[in-house]
Specification:
The chain is α+β, with helices and mostly antiparallel strands. 23% of the residues lie in helices and 31% in strands. The protein is built from 9 helices and 20 strands. The protein has helices at residues 2-24, 50-60, 76-80, 121-144, 162-175, 186-189, 207-215, 221-226, 395-402; strands at 30-35, 65-68, 103-107, 148-152, 182-183, 239-243, 250-252, 261-269, 273-292, 295-315, 318-322, 330-335, 341-348, 353-358, 361-367, 370-377, 381-389, 411-415, 439-440, 445-449. A hairpin with a 2-residue loop joins β9 and β10 (295-315). α2 packs across α7. It starts with a helix and ends in a 6-residue tail after the last strand.
Length: 455
Amino acid sequence: MRRILLAIVGLITLVQISGYGQAARLHPHRIAVFGSSVANGRGDEFARDGYTGLLRAMMAQRGWEVLNQSRGGDNTKTLMTRFAPEGTPDPKTRYLVTVNPSYVVVGLSFGNENLYESKTKAEKDAVYDGYLKGIRAVVDRARQNGIIPVVMLCYTRDLYTSEDYEYVRRANIEQAQWDVPTVNVLGAIDDGKGHWALGWDDKHPQASGHKEFLYSFVPSLFEALEKGKPNPVKAAGGGFARIASGAAPLTFAPEETMHPFALSFMVRPQSDGTIAVISGSTLATRTENRLNENKPFTATTLVADKPFVATLAVQNGMFSYTAAGATRGIVSSVRADGQWHHIVLSHFTARGETLFFVDGRLNGSIAERLEPKKFVVGNRGDYKELFLYRSALNADEVAAMHAGKMLKGSLEIYSPLSDADFKADGSVENRAQSLTALKVGGDRIVHADENVSTR
């Protein structure tokens, strides 16, 4: 009899969960943010649900609904207790499946997993492994229930040691290669040491920090997923774009506000000259005293300042970066020698720093805060493998990319630049899970191949 009763209870639970899955298909534009206190808006002095509330406002303009199903203090284990109710739902508990979302944003980090509190390497290794397995379990269970998952990558904490910071960076590189869309919020809020660039307390960002979280979302990600755009994979073959001149061969203008970014491409220049231009507005900081949970603190807001133009170029045969408003910039020790070279410009808006990498190595940094509004890539020469992220990349991530790893956190554009044809005013193939693309200008661009001479 007891076995029969257990079987009946299990069947009822299965039917309930199945029913929630059926209902989810009735809400194709419903997103649930399912995480802990940061996802729940903690630290936002305006009490507007933090980045979840900002995502809600942005997506509402696009016809989507965003629900907050987060709870402070959750980790990978306690989060799973709220995935679906066992029997009658507790009205005080924010479950996931009961709100019938078609998409879930999984918003956790190491803060509640006891990474900092663990003192030995063995303990920290166990936390690391358990966290990744826990996030993977949420992803798998969401898919089993017909919900498409998106994962927020790990972020900062003011108490983190350099050792803790290394675990955060390593986890992000691993997760950014998964077969699931990810959002690289570390590249939006990191001060360079694993702490908050715009924080409120040990574990939480202030309102402006939550806004930087929002900017690391690809705005058209959910529409791209709705259309079934697949997980991006690296292009095979030896195709690339050969550009005859450089007024504005390839351009991109973000459709929503962009703060942190990383621009990465392979280039084989034929002469000195500009290889990429970024333009927009510099940002200034404004501070004022505010209250958060009845506690006084100094809030920092980023506001538009002056127009800027920054350039990546070859000067006297060397790769260089000239910052916004500067007459001289960073000149690398790498010569444009007729071989392919990997260029990365990585900008951390919150902390106000731009990093310039050539062939996987940092060549220098400049203090500046930018809001880019237009990217122009190309001049006389060869180009391939162009990536544009809505988040900055740290040195570990750049090294991983240079080694051939495909990082997809906050990736808005991935264009191999191996299109069969580049028509003026047309779009370039974009394999990232977004609906935006590079635009082709009036300069002559032809498809070329490493195995076929076109000179």
